[in-house]
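Researcher: Let's try something more involved. This one mixes different molecule types, so please make sure each is placed in the same coordinate frame as the others.
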Amino acid sequence: MKEHKHKDVFKQGAITPVFIGDCIAKHQSKTTVGAHNIFLGQVRADKIDGKTVSTIEYTAYDDMANKKFNAIREAAFTKFNLTCMHIYHSLGKVRIGEICLFVFVSSPRRKEVFEALEFVVEEIKATVPVFGKEIFEDTSHRWKVNS
Amino acid sequence: MKEHKHKDVFKQGAITPVFIGDCIAKHQSKTTVGAHNIFLGQVRADKIDGKTVSTIEYTAYDDMANKKFNAIREAAFTKFNLTCMHIYHSLGKVRIGEICLFVFVSSPRRKEVFEALEFVVEEIKATVPVFGKEIFEDTSHRWKVNS
Amino acid sequence: MQLKIKYFGMLAEVAQCREEDLHCNEVTVYGLLKVLYGKYPKLKEKNFQIAQNNELLSPKAKLTTGEIALLPPFAGG
Amino acid sequence: MQLKIKYFGMLAEVAQCREEDLHCNEVTVYGLLKVLYGKYPKLKEKNFQIAQNNELLSPKAKLTTGEIALLPPFAGG
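Model: All components are placed in one shared frame. Result:
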């Protein structure tokens, strides 16, 4: 399973569209791939009690998070016929409109990527210890809970 | 429904990673969006009877294709809570490893984008009159059939 | 009835043209198919559908003057 | 038993620190919770889980010397 080894999931700050474009470009040499599926989580300007979120600050329990990302990765390669898979998650501050999660799965066939991507995203939300501090425009904050 | 009006689905030649990155960047101003889901169809170097595909040349029955793309678009906005949606499909020659289909859906919530993206991609495959000529390295060809 | 027949994909190879004008006394899809099979016997081996006004037609559907498209299996994406 | 307690997210606000060393005579998660609730009464109002060795523990699970993490609801992505 060496080729599936996970590294550098966490990135400091937002994940940029240029980084995502570069990642897509790198997959053009994989000519057995017929379908890519990409999930992007973007920070919303949610309004709560009249205040508007301006930034989310992410923290994680790194050791456990990395172990969980690896487990998700191994499970996805076992369950689905994937050629490759990448996960990137932000740490630190990400402003509204910026991207905080980038999951990228590739397979010869499209059916595999739809199922695999949803599986991976739901597992990340459920099992990876990442915490989000929603900071409002007035600098007060609230702790984010996934729904 | 004016804001959902469809235009310019077809693009001559491959869809580039830079174009996709730019399209993602343009969505950073949409701060009600929490989730994007992107499908990319990439041309595979399939081996058939000992010959390897090098290029697919796409043609379409344009009038009907545009009508079908519009119908898919309207159906997707009716069925799912989408903030926006884009479809791009190549015409002409696309080499192996290059991207020929780019579908991009965005919503406040992730559940919506997973369902919407699969719906849109399956509808495109089933209802849009696009034809693919798989050209082998020796310049012979075969007509592609979706599975 | 005056029709313009458009051939797509492998069907353009069979007809050796992308479109042609055709005068046809038949008024249904089924009738048109008989005419086309007579003109291009190899069409009988092909899997295709017929569309008019951007919609697929059933074999019993009535034709109207104008453009008709012969569409092989779709292969988008 | 010597433990290092790590507090994440809103729990670090309750404990007013990110980690601390704690000597604890209790050997189960349930016992540790009693100690922590005594030290930080506001923890009782919080929804959280306890992990050791990168795995979530049930209330009856045994603790071992070393690092313990208090984890509020996950909010990745």
